[in-house]
Amino acid sequence: MTDISRKNDYKDLDLDFLAHPITKDVVRKTGPDAVARAIRNIILTNFYDRPFQSYIGTNVQKILFDNMTPTTARLLEQFITDAINNFEPRATVIGVKVTTNIDYNGYDAKIVFSVNNRPESYVLTTFLERIR
Questions:
Q1: Contact at 8 Å (CB) between 63 and 41?
Q2: Residues in contact with 107: Cβ distance below 8 Å, sequence separation at least 6, in sequence order
Q3: pTM (2 decimals)?
Q4: Number of domains comprising the chain
Q5: Closest by alpha carbon to 17, among 32, 31, 46, 37?
Q6: Cα 106 vs. chain centroid, distance in angstroms?
Q7: CA separation for the pair 104, 40 (Å, rounded)
Q8: 73-111 tens-digit pLDDT
Q9: Which residues contact residue 99 at a Cβ distance below 8 angstroms, ignoring those fewer than 6 apart?
């Protein structure tokens, strides 16, 4: 018995470009892993980073250079939520929580989302830091 949602599962390339041990082809991400990777890529993309798609991106990298305050964390939450809602149609945001991590000079982001063809919710955690 095959599950229809698995047949129409989401697939993306693994951007680590690891080789499959048997086929020597680039490994693919599937299902929620593919959507989580896409969300992470959108969050870390600045506007004008993608040629011919300059409208895709967020102000996350820009705001990381501001002072570390709860207001900045709240702005990051809003930017992340807006970016996922605007640019990732395969996911529905359930919640975003960003907390300051002063010891490592960055922010811990916890994104709870659901994939459109699955009933479960998934959690993506990432660390947002300034990159020079």
A1: no
A2: 64, 68, 73, 76, 98, 99, 100, 101, 127, 128, 129
A3: 0.81
A4: 1
A5: 37
A6: 17
A7: 20
A8: 999 999 999 999 999 999 999 999 999 999 999 999 999
A9: 73, 107, 108
Nearest of 41, 37, 40 to residue 12 by alpha carbon = 37
Which amino acid, one-letter code, is at 93? V
Q: Which two tokens stand for residue 94?
A: 């359930």
Residue 6 has pLDDT above 70, yes or no: no
- Per the document, the length of the chain is 132
Contact criterion met (CB below 8 Å) for 95 and 123: no
Domain at 36, CATH number: 3.10.450.40
| H or E stretch at 112 | strand 106-115
Domain around 109: 4-129
Q: What is the mean pLDDT of residues 26-36?
A: 79
Residue type, 45: T
Highest-scoring range by mean pLDDT, 36-45, 61-70, 105-114 = 105-114
One-letter amino acid for residue 89 of the chain: P
For CA atoms 131, 32, 23, 42, the dihedral sign is negative
Specify the residue for token string 């501001």. 66
